[in-house]
Amino acid sequence: MACDRLKDGFRKGQRLYNYHLREERNVYPFYIPAIIYIFLLLLHAFWDHIPDYWNNVYKQPTYPDVPPPMLEYSSAQYPNDITVVTGYFNLGTFQKGPLSYLKFSVDTYKNWMNAYSKLNNSVIAFTDSDEIAQLFKKMRSKYLPESLTQVHVLKRDDLWAFKLAPKIKDIYSEPNYPKYMPNTVNEYYSCAMHVKYELLEIVIKKKLLKTRYVSWVDIGYFREEMNKLFRMEPPDNLKEGHIVYTQIHPFYDYMQPEDIIKSNSVWIAGGFILGTPEYLMIMIEDYKKTTEDMISKRLMDTDQQVLYILYSQYSDIKPRVPIQAIYHLCRCNWFFLGELCRDAYDRQFRPFVPLLNFFSQLL
Ligand SMILES: *[C@@H]1O[C@H](CO)[C@@H](O)[C@H](O)[C@H]1NC(C)=O
Predict the structure, then answer these.
(1) For this UniProt entry, which segments traverse the membrane (predicted)?
(2) In the chain, which stretches have pLDDT less than 50?
(3) Which residues surround ligand 1 with Cβ inside 6 Å?
């Protein structure tokens, strides 16, 4: 008897349970947020144990110790801000990458340049085009005070980087030289990459900057539509005497200079360079020497391969400045350093961040 009653009760409970479960299932799969929440908790708990391939498995290059700075270029007296140096040289329309329909033209860059109208940092721009110079000044004066912008028009033929063009053309015209559009095909594209270091050098030598940090930022670096003014500030945890880049691929220490060029390999991205002038000047010397050394060995590509070769163990030029290679956890974000600098400014406007940090510490 008691047994039957128990069985009855059990069946009733089961029916009730099934009924509600089925009901709720029809209404809303309530367990999905729970699963996501548990997944996130586990991810958080095991985050430190997810292998960091770039630092544990592949390793970084062996960096030199921080050298003595070139004190005559020190910017220690200036505020802890970033001056942005950028440039545009008219190369006409060229194919970018292996797909023939993907072409970059003056209009592509004019479009991307728009973001600079909202960049609330000191900007020093160089160009060989009067049209771009006027346009850039006009864009920058729309929302920002004039004192934040310098535009310098210069001639390509006066620049070290562009004087290399005939030699690079000669290397690229070798029948068996690798063909990557436009890196190892268009000698002027290659020059326009080397010129970044030369322009930084001009800015530092002529003492055009009034901030602690100086950066190179490609004219086409900000590709999204900016709907308000934005500003970049130095992120936390910058290492003294290092030059900062975004790492985008692992560093393979067995790569010979020829392999790096044959495979068009990239280790750190060249679009955003951040450092202090007294160390950047040393880096720039190393960069120029490596570029010339490569040309003498009939090797050439863009700045990204020059950097890879300079820091590889097979380089005849020994690098003197360590690099701080930072990367997004997805290891897929070419624009990470820029986003980090923007975030260094933006986060003061996010009132809930301290609260989130507090809760994440409780976990
Ligand atoms: C640019 O940023 C500075 C520093 O945060 C701020 O004082 C200034 O008002 C900003 N300029 C504009 C035009 O908003």
Answers:
(1) 28-47
(2) none
(3) 120, 144, 229, 231
